[in-house]
Every structure is written in C-alpha cells, then in structure tokens.
C-alpha cells in the first residue's frame, strides 16, 4: 500500500498563554506576506468581548464635531492598502545581557501583512480637528490590571499630531484582504507605519484628541528606553523601529556538509529603506555584500537578502549579518542595554559547523 505524503507545516511558537503571546515561526516562513495563522500575537490583557459597541469608533476632544463612526460607514469611505511589517518592541529581548524582565521573545515577534483601512487624517479632518490638537490618544476595548497600580486600565497609547496626519496612518479593518481576525484586533485596528507595534492599538474603541501630551501608564511608565537599572533618568520613548535583520536559514548551531549553501533572511527599518545587507564569516574582520530583493512599489515592506556560500573547509564558523538603511543607520556590534529590553538590534550572529 502506498503511503500518504506527510505535509509538515510550521506553527506559532507559544511564549505565554495568560495573556496569549505567540511568535511567528520566522525561520520556517518564506512568505513575503505572513499568513494570518502564522502572524505573531502580542497581548497585555485577556481578549475583550465583542459587543455592538465594538463597531462604533468615537472621536472626541479637540475637534469641532465630536461623535462616532460606525463600522459600516468606515467600509464605505475611501480606503488605502499598504504592506508593512509589525514588530513588537520586545522582539529579540532574550538577546540582552544582562537579561531583562518582560515577555521573553526570541526573534518571532515580527510579521508582515497587507493592511486596508481608512486614513486616520480623513476622520480627523471630517471631525474638524482644532489647531490646539497636540496628541492623539487611541484606546482599545481590552483592559486589566497593571502591577503596582490600582484598578483596571485600558490599553491606550498616543501618537503626535504629525504622525496621526500622515496619509498612511490607517484605521484598518482588513488584514491580507480579509476582515481583521478577532485575535488581531477585529473589528478595527490602528496601523502606524514604521513604528513598533505597540502604537498599532487593537480592538480600537475611541480616539481622543488632546491639547497636551498624554500621560497614561502605557505612555509615561512603559515603552521607554530606560538606560539605568534603578533610575528613570535620561529615558527616551520607544517610537520608530531600529534597523534590523534576521538570519532565517541556516539555523543556529547547524551542522552542514561541505559545498554550496544558501544563507538568507529579512531586513527592515523604521527610517528610510534598507540600503545594503553585509555578511561576514571571520567575526567581522571583513564583510561581503548580499543580494537584496525589494519591492520598490512598497514603501514600508521588509527586504529579503541572500548569499550563496561556497565552503569546503571543515570546521566551526561564525556567520554575522548587518543591515544599513538609507539614513545611514547600521546595526551595531554592541547594543545599548535598557532596563525593559526594548529595541534589540545587534548584528545578527549564528554559529555553524562544516563536517
């Protein structure tokens, strides 16, 4: 009897279940667009219930006409579709030395999607944005306890007015050409290009326009680079993504035969675009250019890089990869430590052996 062919597929990598945090199997996904079942999940709280109120998005504060937009209205408005990766600011947190507290992500807290929605600036202009507007606050339906604080707190973040008015900042209702799934923020999610994903608030409930900076707990107490263990001095807010790479294949600690091997991965940045990706086999003493594959029509998408390695000498090798973007930012050899473990972007490094 002929055996059935067994198809082996990658699955999300569980980081925690309460709340649910799951990583994309980034080393086993060659898709330009991450399939929704493999899109990473980052939550601060349990999933919120979906009620009729979930389909109304209120706008209030420094606007001439406060009110709400319902889901069907948004579907009828002029839309925009963009391709971009979302990266959790804690991606690669496990790389920091000494270790930091927080969700212990490896390198799977990044995924790339096709997002469709209404430009936020259209809603703000329709509502009559006042000249006094300073900060735009986005609150989700999810809420819960925060250690050290009393009561329940919604997940709420703000972005400055110039970012809010960017034509590609979206109130999204579709992911990969289908309605956003429940776990990824259905029915509405904010999408902020080039910023770490904490800005892209899920299960969007209301937008509040302030005439002063927002000081909610996820804005003032969290999502900052704190350079000192026991002091908040010199803290800097987490905003745009740093230039970064992942070596998808080969896997770390792989044993390979002599011969030709394809080394490949992805690179991305929150400023400009990826300009080059270099690779080293001698611990950074010299660097070689990799081949880049970019979609020039997509302003924000990640870049695929690859290198054909012809190796015949047996032994142990250290493979290092670094990216540079068009603003001149380059992955550093030494990453500045921060207390909450955000924004790790050191040179990607794996060890291999040829046997």
From TrEMBL:
<dbReference type="GO" id="GO:0008482">
    <property type="term" value="F:sulfite oxidase activity"/>
</dbReference>
<keyword id="KW-0479">Metal-binding</keyword>
<dbReference type="GO" id="GO:0006790">
    <property type="term" value="P:sulfur compound metabolic process"/>
</dbReference>
<dbReference type="GO" id="GO:0043546">
    <property type="term" value="F:molybdopterin cofactor binding"/>
</dbReference>
<dbReference type="GO" id="GO:0020037">
    <property type="term" value="F:heme binding"/>
</dbReference>
<dbReference type="InterPro" id="IPR008335">
    <property type="entry name" value="Mopterin_OxRdtase_euk"/>
</dbReference>
<protein>
    <submittedName>
        <fullName>Sulfite oxidase</fullName>
    </submittedName>
</protein>
<keyword id="KW-0500">Molybdenum</keyword>
<feature type="domain" description="Oxidoreductase molybdopterin-binding">
    <location>
        <begin position="44"/>
        <end position="217"/>
    </location>
</feature>
<dbReference type="InterPro" id="IPR036374">
    <property type="entry name" value="OxRdtase_Mopterin-bd_sf"/>
</dbReference>
<dbReference type="GO" id="GO:0030151">
    <property type="term" value="F:molybdenum ion binding"/>
</dbReference>
<dbReference type="Pfam" id="PF03404">
    <property type="entry name" value="Mo-co_dimer"/>
</dbReference>
<feature type="domain" description="Moybdenum cofactor oxidoreductase dimerisation">
    <location>
        <begin position="238"/>
        <end position="342"/>
    </location>
</feature>
<dbReference type="InterPro" id="IPR005066">
    <property type="entry name" value="MoCF_OxRdtse_dimer"/>
</dbReference>
<keyword id="KW-0560">Oxidoreductase</keyword>
<dbReference type="InterPro" id="IPR000572">
    <property type="entry name" value="OxRdtase_Mopterin-bd_dom"/>
</dbReference>
<dbReference type="InterPro" id="IPR014756">
    <property type="entry name" value="Ig_E-set"/>
</dbReference>
<dbReference type="Pfam" id="PF00174">
    <property type="entry name" value="Oxidored_molyb"/>
</dbReference>
